[in-house]
Backbone:
């Protein structure tokens, strides 16, 4: 499967909970960081958009947890993006454990851009991320 | 709507990100804490089960983010639980902002219990949580 | 020992790490939340000050970890505040486990207010917090 | 200044709080990860020691926050280790912003090893980390 963007990570011990595995919520951190790095790779800074009053927000996530990552695991995240409607996009993101390329997690993350009034709108600077479709 | 369990919270500033709103991943912390407090209210300690080698794990989440919570917001989470199969259960959890009872988030969290070998199984001590169904 | 402000907490499982104890960094979350609630009790909103361009920042912390908190522990934090210089204050904060009032942690947190240019200054709205001295 | 170990990082947006800067507590995550990677580089796995009942714990931290890191900042942490007593060691750790090598934070982290009974002891496998002194 081809990805528009990939990013490598290593589990840090503080991300593991008392079960000794990466806590469920932490995967959303990994996924978010990958999306923001993808945007940066297209010249779009999430922090800079926020300062200008444009808020990219997640409206829905679906995450399938297939295998737990543990202390020291190296992994990578593959990302693709698709348009869902005029004002909505969907990132599909998969996490693979490095040493055996086994799929650890799949996610669909639906998002929109809010203008200064909090209304969803078609932010012009985001149009370019759909070019690969 | 009736809930088997509810729990009150207040947003803490460190849970907000550079958009000034609660970060997406943090809601999973709130949801997890509510599930664990629900289990405790039924006499089941997540930490104690973990020590005995029984791992409750989330296998899938679906979360709809409907409204952002911000610094200082008080809110509560309502929880219901249903059996999905012999070895799977589903928690449905909704978050409401306290001051206007507006729905902020809905979630379905599918989980299973893993035995010491990592295999899904029907943990006897969890059967009682389905009694309300 | 008397405190200008106290706040109660309960450990949440996601705050525990693979040692099964609250992770060192999480205590700073507890301490910060207590400081911000203290400020609120004096009519000062950290988030609102931030929006107005006044940044309260920590410049130094000293923390002694005396006893680990674990899953389910209830505890409370006592806070006092003292002036260190014209533009610096110090919060002294202690954490006590509820069930035996045993001291779990002591902290000294030195802070200053930065104006819009990032320079330390004497923020007028903060003067009132030193009234108890 | 020479360091026994260094590690590079990049700020992730979810680590920033509503002030738009890395939250104070997050630096402790960075510092911990660096210590654990240093230990790994000496053949010592923190997670593995924990499983064997040896708990490395922090007993005191002193942190001076000299400059805030923000979204996108790359930085590195330099670490040295010294013996403080038979059962105590001290990591001194400094954080530098990559683009100008400016010092962002200095920390002294005092730690000990606890045996299965929770008593501080001289863990044989840790002796080698003091070899550089």
Residues:
């Amino acid at each position: 499967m081809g990805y528009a963007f990939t990013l490598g990570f290593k589990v840090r011990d503080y991300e593991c909970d008392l079960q000794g595995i990466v806590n469920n919520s932490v995967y959303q951190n990994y996924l978010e960081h990958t999306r923001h790095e993808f945007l940066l790779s297209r010249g779009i800074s999430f922090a800079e958009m926020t300062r200008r009053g444009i808020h990219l927000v997640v409206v829905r996530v679906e995450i399938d947890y297939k295998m737990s990552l543990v202390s020291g695991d190296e992994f990578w995240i593959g990302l693709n993006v698709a348009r869902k409607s005029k004002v909505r996009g969907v990132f599909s993101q998969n996490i693979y454990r490095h040493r055996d390329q086994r799929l650890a997690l799949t996610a669909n993350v639906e998002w929109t851009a809010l203008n200064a009034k909090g209304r969803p709108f078609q932010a012009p600077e985001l149009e370019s991320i759909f070019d690969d479709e």
